[in-house]
Amino acid sequence: MPERLLAAVVAVPFVLGLSSAPADSGSEVFSFQDPAIVESSGLVVADGLFVTTNDSGDTGQVFVVDGQGRTVGLTRWSERPVDVESLAPAGRGRVWVGDIGDNAAARVSVSITRVPVGRGGRDEPGTTYDLVYPDGATDAETLMTDPTTGRVYVASKTFFGGTLYQAPSRLSEQRPNRLRPIGDVLPIATDGAFFPDGRHLVVRSYTSAEFYSFPDLTRIATVDLPAQQQGEGLAVDDRGRVFLSSEGQYSPVLELPLDRALRAELAGAPDPPKPTSSPDLSPDASDAPEVSPDLDSTPWPWLIGGAAWLVVVAVLLRSLRPR
């Protein structure tokens, strides 16, 4: 019990989110209609269809859903995956399934499998590649692919800041593929995706999302996310729209509105001029979530809050000592 309490206390500052901007409710696109989709833990969108998979505990199956939330396709690729946590695009008509979860940090290697998806049912094991971390076993829930190169990336899920790892440009089926760390991302990463230009990506946690330029991983913005039961899915379509999914039976898929300045940044255009007279009341401006200021420019609230939490953690650690 003390160990679980300690984990919960350490997680609280991050679960509360990394920005102070108020969360927008988002726009509901549909709700999953299939009762078998109970823990949507990965999301891909292409050609007007949405692809998702359940979290660990399910057999290896990938659901294809139309714009009304109806399941129109199902791929069964494995009977006993270890801990499936994510999906990523893998070329037309295929997705990467990320069997990359490792809560206990005990797996020697994790794996990704390229499986076919589309309308109708199919049973196909796909092609599996093993991945190993350079610094030992690591938990992860985020799998992404660069749309310009097809290269695979994994973001770790850790309390004190995540790491983005790059897979080899050519994957081997015969031997483990060594991941290479290339930069930092937000803590408690649960999913992410590249934008179509390959020059930007977004990584989410349960309550916030951070947008980065690529490959330098400069943070562009931090945005609060709508409240979800347990948000673990994110996808970006070919128009740069961001979609969110969550665990829970019949859970909704939301489109995340992006404010004008962020959309301009992602498009590589300069920020639009500020109005000099009446305010802009267009839906784009009034309905979108605000982008929080860069955390580095306002460190004091975080430093004070972090110090308080460290004191609590220290007390709990002391209580865990054998007596």
TrEMBL record:
Keywords on record: Membrane, Transmembrane, Transmembrane helix
Transmembrane feature ranges: 300-320
Segments of skewed composition (Low complexity): 277-289
Region (Disordered): 266-293
Protein name: Unannotated protein
